[in-house]
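User: Hey, quick favor. My workstation is busy. Could you predict this chain's structure for me?
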Amino acid sequence: METIEMTCIVCPNGCALKVQAEDGEILDVVGNSCMRGYAYAQTEVQNPTRMLTSTVDVIGGELPRVSVKTRKEIPKGKLMECARLLKGVAAKAPVNIGDVVVHNIAETGIDIVATVNVPKKTSFL
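Assistant: No problem, here it is.
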């Protein structure tokens, strides 16, 4: 049996958790002040995931970059690969909140979506 210490990141409380696990099975979680902490500990031990937030270039937009995020959490082990893949991505203006910027990033089945509107650059004569 192993004891894993972690800090819950579900809410601002940041509970210090101690997880008793054996062969990938959670036997006990202590230190959580709510059930969300218990669920977080289970996920973190068995299948850790994270949201990825970043920015990508915009071509022809009023802003040079647009903020983006994964539509839902991706496996923690894929974070760096996904971040590297975004390095060369450029979206064409206009970009709207929720627009898919990259489909199925790193074969995770999860899309990268825009989180802000970037209008097309208007030119004045």
